[in-house]
Amino acid sequence: MSEVLFVKDSANEWRRSRGQNRGFVVVCPGGHEVAGWMDELRPPVSWIPGCWAVDIDNNLWIARGGNDYDGARDWVRIDDQLMVTLQLGRGVLS
User: Fold this and answer.
1) Collapsing DSSP states into helix, strand and coil, what is residue 18?
2) Between β-strands 24-27 and 34-38, what pairing exists: parallel, antiparallel or unpaired?
3) What Cα–Cα distance (Å) separates residue 53 from each residue in 58, 61, 90?
4) pTM for this structure?
5) Alpha-carbon separation of residue 91 from 26, 37, 74, 77 (angstroms)
6) Residues 13, 20: Cα–Cα separation, whole Å
7) How confident is the chain (94 residues) per 10-residue block, as mean pLDDT?
8) pLDDT of 88
9) CA-based radius of gyration for the chain
């Protein structure tokens, strides 16, 4: 199973278990652990690069840039075209 599927599954399970039907679930790199929740997509300085944010419609953003100490620099929306590129191993977000 790809990291993206783990991320979506983790976020959806977290939402179901808490009855949370809004905002963004933040998932750690690797997709196996939920790190938190936000009511809106805030600047990612509190998250390390590689964290994922998942909205109620399963849209994805990934935190990039920055470092583990200072936090990520920005969120990048992962659309279907970029997802295909990442899954084929042709793209890297840094």
Assistant:
1) helix
2) antiparallel
3) 9, 5, 22
4) 0.83
5) 22, 27, 17, 14
6) 10
7) 86 95 94 93 94 95 95 88 51 46
8) 47
9) 13
Cα→Cα distances 49→21, 64, 85, 88, Å = 25, 5, 19, 21
Q: Which two tokens stand for residue 43?
A: 């600047």
Contacts with 47 (C-beta within 8 Å, 6 or more apart), sequence order:
26, 35, 63, 71, 72
Q: Where are the beta strands (DSSP E) in 1-94?
A: 24-27, 34-38, 52-54, 60-64, 74-78
Q: Give dist(CA 16, CA 1) in Å, integer.
A: 21
